[in-house]
Amino acid sequence: LLAKAPNAPIALFYKAILLGAHNNSKEGWRIAQSLPKEFIQSEARFAIGTAQLAAVSGNMESANSVLSTFVGNNPTQQGPRLRLAAIRLKMNNAKGALETLAPVMNATDATSLEMIAAAYEQANQHENAVAYLRKAEAAGSKNGNLKYQLAMDDLQKGNTAKGMQGMIDIINNEPGQLT
């Protein structure tokens, strides 16, 4: 593709992604910045890839901007919304992450529920965070860290039997999780 149409946006996009994958994210980001905004915003994979290059090269505000625009124009696409929330959490913007996640607060998938819990935790709303961790666990989350957090919460609240059972389950099912 690069040989036949070296200046085509799709070719440049994949060149940027490949550079990023080979530890040259700054050059990949430089190329991605040259792409037409319409191209970047035309599909989730282009917006997500561009935002990822921006983030890994230290341009979190740009990553936030790319995904904010995409999510604003495509509010029903959950993947980009979750990635935007993750970027906002990395930027220590729990309020922004919670605003981004507002449309998926009633989600039933573990990934969304874990992201909501992380946003609440960063916002120092521990009880809301635990409530969403419990929902994520009920939704089938396989995240060992989630199970550890819930067991610790139970122990801290004096639910010793439940907390200890959670720790025993972790040890039996995922022995490396407590190290």
Element layout with pairings:
Blueprint: H1 9-21, H2 25-34, H3 37-40, H4 44-56, H5 60-73, H6 78-90, H7 94-101, H8 110-122, H9 126-138, H10 144-156, H11 160-173
Helix pairs in contact: 1-2, 1-4, 2-4, 4-5, 4-6, 5-6, 6-7, 6-8, 7-8, 8-9, 9-10, 10-11
Describe this structure in words.
With 179 residues, the protein is mainly alpha-helical. It has helices spanning 9-21, 25-34, 37-40, 44-56, 60-73, 78-90, 94-101, 110-122, 126-138, 144-156, 160-173. α2 packs across α4 (44-56) and α7 (94-101) runs antiparallel to α8. It is elongated, with a radius of gyration of 20 Å. The mean pLDDT is 92. The termini are far apart. 72% of the residues lie in helices and 0% in strands. The chain has 11 helices and no strands.
Distance between the termini: 47 Å
Helical fraction: over 70%
Strand content: under 5%
The DSSP helix count reads: 11
Write down the overall geometry.
elongated
> What is the helix/strand order?
HHHHHHHHHHH
Biggest β-sheet description: none
**Sheet/helix structural class:** mainly alpha
Oligomer: single chain
Mean pLDDT reading: 92
The whole-angstrom Rg is 20 Å
Low-confidence stretches: none
Number of strands: 0
What's a concise summary of this model?
By secondary structure, the chain is an all-alpha fold. The protein has helices at 9-21, 25-34, 37-40, 44-56, 60-73, 78-90, 94-101, 110-122, 126-138, 144-156, 160-173. The radius of gyration is 20 Å and the shape is elongated.
